[in-house]
Amino acid sequence: MSDSVSAVNPEGSPLAEAIHAEVVVIGAGITGLTLALRLQQGLRNFPAQGSRPVLLAEASSRVGGCISSQSQAGYRWEEGPNSFTPVPALLNLIAEVGLADQLVLADGKLPRYVYWEKELLPVPMSPAAAIGSQLLSVGGKLRALRGLLGFVTPAPGREETVRQFFRRQLGSEVVERLIVPFTSGVFAGDADQLSAIAAFHRIASWEERYGSLFAGAFRAPRSQPEPLSPQIQPVPKRGQLGNLRQGLQQLPEAIAAKLGDTLHLGWQATHLKRDEAGYWVGFKTPEGSRWVAAKQVVLTLPAYAAASLLQELNPEASQLLLEIPYPPVAVVTLAYPEDALPQPLRGFGHLIPRSQGLRTLGTIWASCLFPERAPQGYHCFLNFIGGATDAADARQKGIPPITALSPEERAQIVHEELSQILLTRPVEPIRLGERLWPQAIPQYTLGHRQRIAQLQESLARQTPGLSVCANYLDGVALGECVRRAEAMAQEILSTSLSTSSGSGAS
Predict the structure, then answer these.
(1) 113 vs 461: CA distance, rounded Å
(2) DSSP 3-state assignment of 411?
(3) How many whole angstroms separate alpha carbon 394 and alpha carbon 327?
(4) DSSP three-state, residue 431
(5) Are 475 and 199 within 8 A, CB to CB?
(6) Which domains does the chain carry?
(7) Per the database record, which ranges form the Amine oxidase domain (predicted)?
């Protein structure tokens, strides 16, 4: 059965051949790949005459989106996401695509550090550790304890920033020395701009539901654990992080292999139109322009890319998407000989509060986390520089933002800062890689949840059958991307199967 049929394009002029698909997914990052895989599996037994079940289109020549694993001379490193929380949905997907034996887990007890007043101080990971921690003063600890127990000023009745919420709850010391570096290191975000309820939804909701953060930590219901594939052995422990032996890139490539000819690389979506039968998607492909007719379309692109496609079809949704900022972040990967570092070097990495005057957001000690990340006698470090505050800080200091610097200049800044934080003697770094992401991580700024609700309402009202599914919605972690994609697939399949049943399809 051919899936190319004679057709007329949206402008009404003859079109020699158009591809027909039940669902078109645009974007082959981890979200698009997972969504296409689940749709392919679910629609396999419900083919429509002359139509393929799913078509997944990716503009670039590779899958994975921001996932980018690199290797060279015995080193292996990540230039995008560097690890994942081993949640069941993600672990089961890893097992399903044949990578269970490639799973590696970092020691969940590895210390995390904050660079404060020229010292690397461990982050307290337990109440006992918090009591003896040098990271907070006695007054700061007492203030945090008072907040944990619920002795705080009432919520102001308006949306709070991350800084406002945690300062009210735990005090200024905790904010400056823990929350701000975590926010900039994990989200590349600005604690004065991010919404607490959007970026830290679970924690920020405890006050209203349970009266205090302490009560919420104990009383909040735990989600029922999902069944885990028996291939995942050993079962990850609390606090552990995961990766794959050859790097995270293994996962999108393994899913792509399962998808076969459902996946089309080098297909850039250029037009998106709608008629009474569904949607027309125009693509620029290596073989020339192609049109695809589809009943449903899912955009798994970054917000700014989805906004461009929706500009004419749904201007309201396009504008809402453009309101989601993406700051630049550079990943600078450096290696050093072991004898130029503290002995023994053991830890997850370190974060740097913005008040310490350095430009590096944080550093992951990659070769301490996972095996085979560096040759014997050397250590590999992933350093992150830039983020939501970099441009304003640079203007204030009269220096160029990171986007105006060369790769060599960014690497030199990171090396100089690592020299004062971590190195025990002067030594030149081994420069392994430098990757600038001009638009890196979506920011959940004030009003984000309302913005997303308006976006979903606009899509349902003006362009039914067109959906978005991406990390700017409600979680940026890899496990969240997989969870969201599988939920979207179930929603589409329930609609498709119900329609097929109602029309007498068998």
Answers:
(1) 48
(2) helix
(3) 14
(4) strand
(5) no
(6) 4-65+249-324+445-502 (3.50.50.60), 69-109+326-437 (3.90.660.20), 124-219 (1.10.3110.10)
(7) 30-493
For 146, list phi and psi in degrees, rounded to 5.
Answer: -60, -40
Question: What tokens appear for 499 in the block?
Answer: 């329609």
Helix (H) or strand (E) holding 408: helix 407-421
Segment holding 8, helix H or strand E: strand 4-8
Give the phi and the psi of residue 474 in degrees, each rounded to 5.
-155, 40
> What pLDDT tens digit does each residue of the chain (506 aa) get?
334 444 445 555 434 478 999 999 999 999 999 999 999 999 887 655 667 899 999 999 999 999 999 999 999 999 999 999 999 999 999 999 999 999 999 999 999 999 999 999 999 988 888 888 999 999 999 999 999 998 999 999 999 999 999 999 999 999 999 999 999 998 999 999 999 999 999 999 998 898 889 888 888 877 667 889 999 988 999 889 999 999 999 999 999 999 999 999 999 999 999 999 899 999 999 999 999 999 999 999 999 999 999 999 999 999 999 999 999 999 999 999 999 999 999 999 999 999 999 999 999 999 999 999 999 999 999 999 999 999 999 999 999 999 999 999 999 999 999 999 999 999 999 999 999 999 999 999 999 999 999 999 999 999 999 999 999 999 999 999 999 999 999 999 988 655 554 443 33
Assess contact for 163 and 179: CB atoms under 8 A.
yes
C-alpha 296/C-alpha 338 separation (Å) is 54
Tell me the residue type at 424: T
Question: Reduced to 3 states, what is the DSSP secondary structure of residue 447?
Answer: coil
| Cβ contact 106:85 at 8 Å | no
Task: Read off φ and ψ for residue 401, nearest 5 degrees.
Answer: -70, 165
3-state SS track over 50-64: CCEEEEEEECCCCCC
Whole-number CA gyration radius for the chain = 24
CA distances from 50 to 1, 3, 5, 19, 294 (A): 6, 5, 7, 9, 12
Map residue 381 onto helix, strand or coil. Answer: strand
Contact 291, 281 (CB under 8 A): yes
Two structure tokens written together for 128: 């006992």
What CA–CA distance (Å, rounded) separates 163 from 477?
Answer: 22
d(CA 185, CA 351): 6
What sign for the dihedral angle of Cα 140, 145, 150, 151? negative
Q: What is the pTM of this model?
A: 0.93
What angle in degrees, to the nearest 10, is found between the helix axes of 315-322 and 448-462?
A: 160
Report cis status (omega within 30 of 0) of the bond before 342: no
| 3-state DSSP assignment of residue 232 | coil
- How many helices and strands (H and E) does the chain possess? 19, 19
C-alpha span between 406 and 404 (Å, rounded):
7
Instruction: State how far the Cα of 294 lies from the Cα of 317, in Å rounded to an integer.
Output: 20
* Type of residue found at 407: P
